[in-house]
Amino acid sequence: MITTVDINNEMIQLLPPHRRLQNFIIFLQSLAYPLVWNYNNFTDFLNGTSAGNYNFSTTYNIGTNVIYKFQVYQSLVNGNSGNYPDANPDKWLLVVNNFIGAYERMAYNPQKLVFEWALNHYFGTTFRQPGTGTSDIYILTSAPSYTSFVSFTTEDGTSDVFTVGAGGSAVYSTSIFASTTTYQYEIHIPVAVYTALGSASVREAIVRSFADKYTIRGVKYIIVTY
Known about the structure:
The chain has helices at 7-14, 22-47, 102-106, 112-123, 191-195, 203-211; strands at 52-53, 65-68, 71-75, 92-96, 138-141, 160-164, 171-175, 185-189, 221-225.
């Protein structure tokens, strides 16, 4: 856990009592401003941001942070309105590449409830505890159909080959599947949320860019809208 430090106050404490005049304090705090800026962005990276979502019609002042496309941008100018952050690098600076803090993301895993919480938090939908209803984004397991041996160009697309028994009784066996039904679970996402992610060519990639970080290697899934 990073220690909480008030850098501006530290600049005052560094001055001898008889030198704690306003002009000296302002001078030292000005020198320390890059440290304050980096410290604030680093704590946002660790703990998550409190910034609001970007609004095209809102006017932002210099230094204001917003969330846009799951990332945190900071306004570089005053009177900043009608400028999409990712398309105007002269007016917006990308300061944190994920609005969810690293401490929280470290706790995510592919277990159903944790994974459902993570997906709903990331895409701004509602997570519901068991017994209180189905979360907006939810997961269903789906056993693959094993019908034939598949040899693919990568290991995770190939049927498993393993030994059964030991010593003289050991034989090689296989788990076999049909290539069209190799997924083990489904991510169900509301069609309105899915559509809002962008054009049809990028929606699945956006979901997978998050879900793939927490899916166990070799386990496959599909995205289903409803």
